[in-house]
Design goal:
Its cofactor is Zn(2+). It is a single chain. Helix content is 26%, strand content 21%. The two termini are 29 Å apart. The chain is α/β, with parallel strands linked by helices and 448 residues long. Helix 1 crosses helix 2 and helix 4 packs across helix 6. It has two domains: 102 residues, Urease, subunit C, domain 1; 310 residues, Alpha-Beta Barrel (TIM Barrel). Strands 1, 2, 3, 4, 5, 16, 17, 18 and 19 form a nine-stranded mixed sheet that branches. A five-stranded parallel sheet has the order 9-10-13-14-15. The protein binds N-carbamoyl-L-aspartate and zinc ion (2 copies). The site of one zinc ion (ZN) has 6 residues, from loops. One zinc ion (ZN) binds next to loops.
Amino acid sequence: MTELTAGPTTYVLRGVRPLGGDAVDVVLDAGTVAEITAVGAASADGATVIEAADHVLLPGLVDLHTHLREPGREDAETVASGTRAAAVGGFTAVHAMANTSPVADTAGVVEQVHRLGEQAGWADVFPVGAVTVGLDGERLAELGAMADSAARVRVFSDDGKCVHDPVLMRRALEYVKAFDGVVAQHAQEPRLTDGAQMNEGVVSAQVGLAGWPAVAEEAIIARDVLLAEHVGSRLHVCHLSTAGSVEIIRWAKSRGIDVTAEVTPHHLILTDELARTYDATYKVNPPLRTAADVEAVRDGLADGTIDIVATDHAPHTREDKDCEWGAAAFGMTGLETALSVVQQTMVDTGRLTWADVARVLSTTPARIGRVEAVQGRPIAVGEPANLTLVDPSARRVVDGTSQATASANTPFRDHELPGQVVATFLRGRATVLDGVPVPVHPGVGGAR
Ligand SMILES: NC(=O)N[C@@H](CC(=O)O)C(=O)O
Ligand SMILES: [Zn+2]
Ligand SMILES: [Zn+2]
């Protein structure tokens, strides 16, 4: 392979397979897809050639659900470290959740997060605005001001907490219609999950941890799809995790209700059996469920009931995770392993094609977040070169400590996973080459 550089370069991706289809050469120049030709036909003059035979080319991945922790918990993650992890995972855009400190409930905070993303240069950062002031579930935040701000917020969520008051949820759904926004609900009935530590079921009874019943998720989703229908608004359901939730979304869609839903990579593969280890790495909200639930969410993703995969990347410090289960924080990282988990569970099992992967990890999340003018674009001449180059035949063992994220709470440490993101391009500039992050400002953008 030619020596690779990160500058404003012309790239020829030789013999690559867009969406897993027929091999072509794809030329990236001046930030766009400049040419798509027969293999070997693109001129290599002055270009950096990447030999990409058998590599799959995807539109840059778009995460609708990332926790970046800045402002407030920069010891767990910063906008820079989190978006660097995103780039390593093949993402060119992330939606940054609002449960920071201070909470992203004003135009000032969302603009700050947006600006930090631009400065870091690893990926587009689209801030999510809080639904309620301080995530306290009592008063609506300044949704309109956040929508009109320089951050152009379209996704609103109290994620980490549920908007459980039905009157507030109704008002939020009504309010966001004015600017084509969406409310992304963390569906968790608080009274049914008071003190809950893991999925309620056989395993929770055996290990003696307080259970989080499936109905606590399903009851809120059922209520919210009915509210969305009543108000004629758009609802998005975060990290759906149970078979019953899939059923409700399927029913809501059959009625024409404007609802979308996401599943995380970890809920596609891990089960509550892992709680038997008492290793709090596996403590997450919503909790890991049963094998039957895993099967149901895979079915739901395969048949389109579940629209997208979103990481819910939730970095936490060692102090917050390396402790007794009951005292540990909920959450696991996910940006750097998401595509591999989707490949293992859905592509290598024949349930999704690479074109489907582009849909569930790029095109549809971009559309739900209303950023489809700039992200999740088709791979076509003239389009912005936001692209992810994947080697699906590679296998790698996840190294829990040397990831690009600033936190180490991956549930896939020492797991062997298929697929490797070889390169990521953000408007034609390589943010990752040979699987390694390439800082925009060497020595600055790459710093933790
Ligand atoms: N998923 C988690 O377990 N934790 C998230 C909050 C959330 O997504 O609900 C976090 O912010 O740490
Ligand atoms: Zn959540
Ligand atoms: Zn979350």
